[in-house]
Amino acid sequence: MMKNYPKEYFKLVNADEEVLRDKDLKTKQLTYFQDAMLRFGKNKYNVIASFTLLFLIIMSIIVPILTPKPLYTEVNASLRLLPPRIPIVENLGILDGSKFYKNVSVDMDTISDQTGLGYPTEGFNIDYIDMSTLKNEVQVGTFVDPSFVGGTVEMKVATGKTSSAIATKELVSVGAGQSIYVDVNSISRGTLEVYLVKSSATITETKVDVETEETSERIVVAHTVGDLTVTWGDTRFMDLLGTVDEDGINKILLERSGYGVLAFRYVLDSPSTGSSNLLSLNSIYTTSGDADAVKIKEYTGYKLAFFSQLSLDSATENGTYTRLNAQRLVASFVYDKYSALFDDKDGRIGGVEYERILSENEGMAESIKVNTTNPKAWTFGEGYPIIKVTNYSESIKTIDGVEQVFRTYDVSLDGKYALGYDEIPYFLFGTDVGGKDLFSLIWLGLRTSLLLGFLAALTNIFLGVIWGSISGYYGGQVDILMERFKDIWGSFPQITMISIITIIIGPGFLALYIFMVYDGWIGAAGITRMQFYRYKGREYVLAARTLGASDARIIFKHILPNALGTIVTRVILSIPAVIFLEVNLSYLGFGIGNGQTFKIGPFELTGTSIGVILNDGQTQILAGNLWLIIYPTIIVSVLMITFNMFGNALRDALNPQLRGN
Q1: Which among 161, 597, 626, 653 could bridge 40 via Cys, Cβ 3.0 to 4.6 Å?
Q2: Is it the case that residue 16 has pLDDT exceeding 70?
Q3: Is 650 within the bounds of a domain?
């Protein structure tokens, strides 16, 4: 039953006080990307990686622009292979431009009576060798090298053969009454026959060194002379001087004079059965009398090992000729390469150049101090390009009927001026084999690698997203056919494909780009296909299809944005993968080559990339020039780490399921 309450029962309470009401929201709702960036910035490691990556990209752009172009484009043999030198740090004794040399041949004339230590002189200045680091040791080896002294040589007859022969590489003159002494260390069995092959039975061979392109000539015994075959003991072509079959010093007295090649043939009475059949020689020399007389020709150590092998009958004659127990004294030390390179240098300049230098340097002429004992010599004050003049010569020439005097000055130039510097330069990462600044080269190479990597990655993502979208959205037979094609396309071996592409197109940017995209899109297509299978059955997609949305609208409006986080991550992570691929290919010689250029809009890609720098530097590892490998490797490693951290952070930030967390 309903009751009626009088109006007086009701009254306002706290009418004079402030009424509490809900307040309006003052904060704005965050957009998808604002929320993503907020979550991205909360992880300090992601921020550090991002700034590091940004720093690398900026450095790859500005360093090649700000650095004088000749420093990284022009070859300067004077500056080749300088070690890193960094200001301030050099005061700590590290990265100070010095280099540790190991196993350098010692000049025997430099051995000290007090310390017993010697040092090299060829290519080194004693003033810049750190004597506190100098150490000597003796190396024993089999190298046919003049730096190795002493030792023996060993002749072996090959299994199944009966002889082995050697000969001098020069023509030798011998006279009647002279003696040939053969110092035999040991002989297992058989006889050593000594011949003088007449010069008419020899020919001159010219050899070209592949690396230095220097030519050298040597005399060898001919196998035929005209229609006649040269054989051992044929008196038309050679004379048998004597035989040796005992250990020790054996004397062969010459009965007549001759001119030709000395040949030594080690002969066995039966075919050799193994390595035990050998002859070891200490030395061979000729004199006009006894063994202790003055030696006319002497073959020992390197000269003896330098003999050439000889075979006039391949059916019975073959073997080995080896140097043993040779020794050389080597030194290890620290050397200040910068101070040595920029030390004062002797040179010769013309009168015009001399006068120009005087005119360009105020006060230089006034600082001259003439040598009191030699009026043609004088010195200058400190800080001028010319240190001193040691002599000058004059020549008088008549030009247009007027006699003119021309002078040429022998001078000592300031080392920095001679190389075109005002002060000793700092090369932060050292220089390469061409004398180019490695610091500038690395950033220039990184720019090339980044641009090529971005271009290939974007192409791969573009193709992969289109392919994966169609395959994943339609499914069924379309998906099966596209997947089978993708499997076949990606089954070709990579090394085979890069070889074929290089042969057809030639090495360079285009070949490398084609190789990086020919199957690089397959991974992006797989990721996109997987995301489409994940989202195409969701309720909002089904609702859009029910409302009549087209396939294109469903793909690009409803599915693709939700898969964007994973796809963007794939884009970011594919860039370092492509860069690393370029580094590997260039390192193996399939990538970009030095001297090539390729323009992409305002950017010009050079033939220098990180991979090319590493490829060039690998040849210097054994020489101890490790900075050519260390610095580009560090840059690549940092680039890979930061790209991966940045990509993972971006994946989490763009994940819609984490929005608001």
Answers
A1: 653
A2: no
A3: yes
